[in-house]
Structures are given as C-alpha cells and as structure tokens.
Design goal:
Layout lengths: L1 H18 L2 H10 L18 H5 L1 E8 L3 H16 L3 E3 L6 E10 L8 E11 L6 E12 L3 H18 L6
Parallel strand pairs: 1-2, 1-3
Antiparallel strand pairs: 3-4, 4-5
Length: 168
C-alpha cells in the first residue's frame, strides 16, 4: 500500500511538471512522504550483548533421573548464575557447556549418594562441532551438594580463564 501511494504521488508530481502548473507541482512535492535514510544492511550498530558485560556465557545440561543428581544440577546452575564471572545462557552463542550425567550409586538406596560425570566443551554455536575441554567424575553425598556445586563452578571458572581467547 505504501508503494502504491508513493507511486501515485510521483505520478501526480510528474503530471504537474509536464502540464506546467508550478502551484500543483509544489503541492504535490509537499504531499510526498519524506524518505528516512536507513543504514545499509549489515552496517547497523549491533546491540550490546548483555552476556559480554556479565561474564563468560555458560550452560548446564543434565542427564539422569536421580533426585540427588537433579539437585546438584540445579545448585550448579544457581551457583553459576549468582556469580559475576558467568552468564547462564541458553542462546545459540559462543559458550562453555557443562554436561552433567548423574545416577544413583546404589539402586536400593535412593538419595544416599550419586555418581556424576562432567564434561566441559566449548560450543561456537549449536550447528558446529563442540570442542572437548576437560572432564571429571565423582561422587556426591546429600550433605555436600553446595560445596560440590561451588567446586564445579570454580573448575568451570578456571577453564573459562584458560580458554578465554575463544570468546574474543
């Protein structure tokens, strides 16, 4: 519709010029919509990335159906999110991925302890291959969830500092 109106105004302006009516051409020129210059595509200033201001982008992926492992994953996410060194993000961007796999140590004793496996990878984007950075296995008991989550966050921070050049 906008193109149609602009074309119609251009036609009126052209007719007024051809017919030699200066008043009509002045009115037609004033009635024409003003074009606002827009920057060329790709030259716009990118919006600031809030994760750059906050810290290293990181995501935690948990696999496992044990309650203690799920609580460890949640506590780890909370610890990373509370830290100014990290920005917990699920966006498709450059980030560290903490892949956590948990299972009960003994099937007959729920909530006593869980075995976990951690793998840290660097992800350029979801469409690219991930780069292995480090791994860890361990055992977590009910009373040490918070300290274990903090230890994993500290290890994640060391990896983030070691591979910080990947985020430049």
């Amino acid at each position: 519709m906008r193109i149609y109106a602009a074309s119609l105004m251009a036609l009126v302006f052209s007719c007024a010029l051809l017919l030699g009516a200066p008043e009509a051409s002045a009115q037609a020129q004033e009635a024409m919509p003003k074009q606002v210059e827009q920057p060329a595509k790709g030259l716009e200033k990118p919006a600031p990335n809030e994760s750059n201001h906050r810290g290293t982008p990181v995501t935690v992926q948990h696999a496992g159906d044990d309650e203690l492992g799920s609580r460890l994953a949640l506590k780890l996410k909370e610890t990373l999110n509370d830290s100014s060194l990290f920005a917990v993000s699920d966006r498709d961007e450059k980030k560290l991925k903490v892949m956590l796999r948990t299972m009960r140590e003994f099937e007959g004793r729920p909530n006593s302890s869980s075995v976990y496996s951690l793998v840290w990878v660097y992800s350029e984007s979801e469409a690219t291959l991930k780069y292995f950075l480090d791994e860890q296995i361990g055992l977590v008991h009910e009373g040490e969830l918070e300290s274990r989550a903090e230890a994993i966050a500290a290890a994640t921070e060391r990896l983030g500092a070691r591979y910080s050049y990947l985020f430049e």
